[in-house]
């Protein structure tokens, strides 16, 4: 692993006013990710500097938009752990649940948590729309990146957030049409778009966007529907 990655991570964390010490566990996690990626599809990003910026620092950028200290957070469709796991490394008081439908990815996440001796991270294999049956309105925050279009994603994520909490959707900067098409879904599910913020990934000039959706009202029973219905007939 190059010194470059370590430097990129430390500088990026410092720019985000996060403890630079988190760079070391992030480096080990990145090493496991790239190693496992040779035999299993975990990420399309393979250069160390891109992994540092596009996965780790992009994930940590969420700390600019919410205070996660001591909060419960679910990462819906976490894949290889993004954005949830870097957030937990940067903010150890955060109570994290990593949720993904794919068994192999969740197994990998458990291995990373064991290797880094992270306690209290719940790695769950399951579908968000089914997980909500037992875990409705249980989390302070839901976060999600690169999982589905916002009208669908809102139905997967908002039911999991408690009233007063928020769902942070990580999107590209050209998501205006997607956001407009999700307005009704968000309102129906008890959400309210509080903030749409563009930022630049630290150490790069790559623009990204986060949509902060506050949970104002309880999600009506009946949502989330089955995935077939969500997909076929988005709210
Ligand atoms: N968030 C990660 C991974 C994105 S890939 C990142 O940004 O790198 C999308 C992931 O979402 C896949 O791992 C897929 O298994 C998962 N996923 C898609 N729909 C899901 C659902 N309904 N419930 C749980 N996981 C889901």
* Largest sheet data: 7 strands, mixed
Tally the beta strands: 7
Q: How many structural domains does the protein architecture include? A: 1
Give the CATH level 1 class.
Answer: Alpha Beta
Nearest-integer average pLDDT: 96
Order of helices and strands: HHHEHEHEHEHEHHEEH
* Proportion of residues in helical segments: 40-55%
**Which structural class do you get from the secondary structure elements?**
alpha/beta
CATH homologous superfamily?
Answer: Vaccinia Virus protein VP39
Strand order of the largest sheet: 3-2-1-4-5-7-6
Distance between the termini: 45 Å
CATH topology name, in short, is Rossmann fold
How would the global form be characterised? globular
Number of helices: 10
The whole-angstrom Rg is: 17 Å
So, CATH architecture? Answer: 3-Layer(aba) Sandwich
Low-confidence stretches: none
Give structural notes.
- The structure is a single chain.
- The chain contains 10 helices and 7 strands.
- With 235 residues, the protein is of the alpha/beta class.
- It has one domain: 3-Layer(aba) Sandwich (Rossmann fold).
- A 7-stranded mixed β-sheet has the order 3-2-1-4-5-7-6, sandwiched between helices.
- The longest helix is centred in the first third of the chain and has 14 residues, at 23-36.
- The protein is globular and about 50 Å long.
- The relative contact order is 0.14.
- The mean pLDDT is 96.
- Residues 77-79, 82, 99-102, 105, 127-129, 145-147, 156, 227 line the site of S-adenosyl-L-homocysteine (SAH).
């Amino acid at each position: 692993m190059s010194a470059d990655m370590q430097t990129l991570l430390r500088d990026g964390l410092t720019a985000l006013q996060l403890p630079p010490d988190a760079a070391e566990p992030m480096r080990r996690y990145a090493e496991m990710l790239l190693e496992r990626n040779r035999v299993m599809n975990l990420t399309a990003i393979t250069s160390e500097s891109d992994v540092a910026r596009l996965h780790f620092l992009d994930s940590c950028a969420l700390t600019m938009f919410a205070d996660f200290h001591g909060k419960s957070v679910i990462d819906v469709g976490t894949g290889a752990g993004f954005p949830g796991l870097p957030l937990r490394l940067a903010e150890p008081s955060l109570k994290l649940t990593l949720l993904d439908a794919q068994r192999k990815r969740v197994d990998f996440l458990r291995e990373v948590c064991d290797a880094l001796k992270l306690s209290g991270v719940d790695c769950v294999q399951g579908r968000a729309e089914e997980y909500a049956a037992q875990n409705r309105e249980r989390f302070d925050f839901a976060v999600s990146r690169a999982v589905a279009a916002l009208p669908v994603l809102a139905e997967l994520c908002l039911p999991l957030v408690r009233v007063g909490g928020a769902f942070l959707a990580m999107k590209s900067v050209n998501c205006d049409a997607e956001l407009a098409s999700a307005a009704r879904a968000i309102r129906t599910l008890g959400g309210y778009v509080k903030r749409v913020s563009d930022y630049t990934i630290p150490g790069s000039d790559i623009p990204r966007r986060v949509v902060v959706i506050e949970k104002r009202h309880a999600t009506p029973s009946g949502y989330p529907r089955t995935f077939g219905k969500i997909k076929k007939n988005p709210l």
